[in-house]
Amino acid sequence: MVSTLTIRPATIADAATIHHFIVELATYEKAAHEVLASVSDIESSLFGEHSSTQAVIASLNDEPVGFAVFFYNYSTWLGKHGLYLEDLYVSPEYRGIGAGKTLIRHLAKLAVEKGCGRFEWNVLDWNEPAIKFYQSIGAKALDEWVGYRLTGDALKEFAMG
Length: 161
Fold this sequence. Notes:
Elements: E1 5-9, H1 15-28, H2 39-47, E2 53-60, E3 63-75, E4 80-90, H3 99-113, E5 118-121, H4 128-136, H5 152-159
Parallel strand pairs: 4-5
Antiparallel strand pairs: 1-2, 2-3, 3-4
Helix pairs in contact: 1-2
């Protein structure tokens, strides 16, 4: 039997699968306790009427093996949109078959088709397998930028003045 690896746009019917992958990813990143999203949250936030986020599913012989969640941002310096990869994940038992590379190439093609000036993402500094993979496809680390985040009570307190 010939194995077929495919990438397709996710639909609301994939919400439970996406949630499962999110939990697997968070577990891999040693942060499972930080996953607050439910399947219902995924349905409404990712597939709701006003969502600006999209997802794709990687399948091997119609069996979901990974996913990517992304959205378009904007670069004022380039005067173009960019594609931002929020999450990319392939289940451990399917790593090494090309699913990750196929997912990221699919998104790169989308970025090119949409005229994006950039395709960006973040990776944890300890995730050597991912860093080596990204370097192998020609991606470069942005060492001059430091990410910041407001969340939870700090976000609410700051927003309220």
